[in-house]
Amino acid sequence: MGQADTNSEIILINIAGNDRPGVTAALMGILAEYEVRVLDISQAMVHENLALGILVKLPAGTGSAAVLKDFLFEAHTLELRVRFQPVSRAEYQQWVSGERQSRYVLTLLGRRITAAQIARIAAVTTAHGLNIEDIVRLSARSPLHDVDSTTRACLELSLRGEPDDADAMKGEFLSISREMDIDISFQEDNFYRRNRRLVVFDMDSTLIREEVIDELAREAGVGDQVAAVTEAAMQGEMDFRESLTKRVALLEGLDASVLERVAQRLTLTEGAERLLKTLKVLGYRTAVISGGFEYFGRQLQTRLGLDTVHANQLEIRGGRLTGRVEGEIVDGERKAFLMQSLAHDMGIELAQVIAVGDGANDLPMLRMAGLGIAFHAKPLVQRSARQAISTIGLDGVLYLMGMNDAEGPH
Fold first, then answer.
1. In 3D, which of 277, 267, 287 has the Cα closest to residue 201?
2. Would you call 189 a catalytic residue per the annotation?
3. Which of these three, 159, 189, 219, is where a domain ends?
């Protein structure tokens, strides 16, 4: 037991040992007998081992010796280790003033998380003036076997302070992500983070693995020409409207019956079904806003229970594609406008919107949304978006929302 300053009214009590039912009740019962005020309390469990910290203020005129003696005896009975640390009023006031500092959340996502990754990331946060206050595991307990294509690992770090150079810090996080195969999300921990209401998705290469227009092009025998234009558009090397017009023109004359055949072979992205099921249970509204085609968006709407679909409409005449799009093309600016309109109709702020996409034409809505996530995106999009997921499936979005694997359906 550490030596406590009996003249101090404020004591920090640290308890450690094997957990068992009734520990907290027994220890708090001792403090209650002496009418001790609890200023702060935090408890964590790691492999059935308890770590409990209690910051207390003794009532005026109460000597600390009797309280701490009884507390220590009870802890000894429970086979727990205890350390008492006096806290001066100046130290306490400094701690209280820290509440006025900005609060951030840093989320680590990957197939596995290692000590080396945590060490690098912690060094960066410290160097930029941030202090780690709490670390919580959001993913399920890790299996001992080697990681596979379905394994998920996630830690959430609570930080306080003001980063001295947020852009430089983000650049360092991007470098670590590439070098160590981990995603790093950095968000302000504000009211809106815990009150999102609408989640908007791109479709091709986001909700589904494929680029539908490439699949249609293969059916039309123009796969190589269309794929080249698609890649240029996704890399941001070509205006989306121009690229879409060029690609659709190459589909002229394709039998419309092909649409159903292509729809049947489309595959959902890893984690998409779990994510949408969870969002639906929790009451979120969901939408597809895509530069792809409405026919396939409607198929996904039925399959995943999406609330809204906005996409391009292929013009069909006499049972064949004409090589044109009907109505206004859904490009990057149109995507952002449609997302804004959905939020307005719901009566919510854009800060309450999550947008997920992979291409350069998704950037306007990713930047406008409160939480914009580049999903398995091209380097240009990763650098430009505020958040990115590249190592795990689409259900990684739940971690960035602060949810853990014990929440929602599985």
1. 287
2. no
3. 189
Are 104 and 151 in contact by the 8 Å Cβ rule? The answer is no
Specify the number of domains making up the chain: 3
pLDDT at 184 exceeding the cut of 80: yes
Do 166 and 121 meet the contact criterion of CB atoms below 8 Å apart? no
Sheet order of strands, 285-293 included: 320-326, 308-317, 285-293, 198-201, 353-357, 371-375, 387-389
Query: Per-residue b/e over 200-235, b at no fewer than 16 CB within 10 Å?
Result: bbbbbbbbbebbbbbbbbeebebeeebbebbebbbe
Domain range spanning residue 292? 198-400
Q: Is 204 a catalytic residue?
A: yes
Q: Is there a domain that residue 256 lies in?
A: yes
> What is the distance between the alpha carbons of residues 163 and 104, in angstroms, rounded to a whole number?
10
Q: Hey, what amino acid is at 27?
A: L
Q: State the pTM of this model.
A: 0.86
* Same-domain status, 225 and 327: yes
Both structure tokens of 60: 């005026």
The partner residues of 288 in beta bridges, in order of sequence, read 201, 309
Of the residues 165, 189, 213, the one at which a domain ends? 189
Q: What does the pLDDT average to over 286-314?
A: 97
Which residue among 183, 202, 214, 395 is the active-site one?
202
Segment 199-222 mean pLDDT: 96
Q: Given the residues 146, 164, 204, 362, select the one marked as catalytic.
A: 204
pLDDT band, residue 6 (cuts 50/70/90): very low
CB-CB contact of 23 with 78 (8 Å): yes
The answer to the question of residue 1 being in a domain is no
Cα atoms in the 13 Å half-sphere on the side-chain side of 228 = 5
What is the pLDDT confidence band of residue 227, given thresholds at 50, 70 and 90?
A: confident
5 lies in some domain: no
Give the SS3 label for residue 99: helix
259 contacts: CB under 8 Å, gap ≥ 6: 216, 295, 296, 314
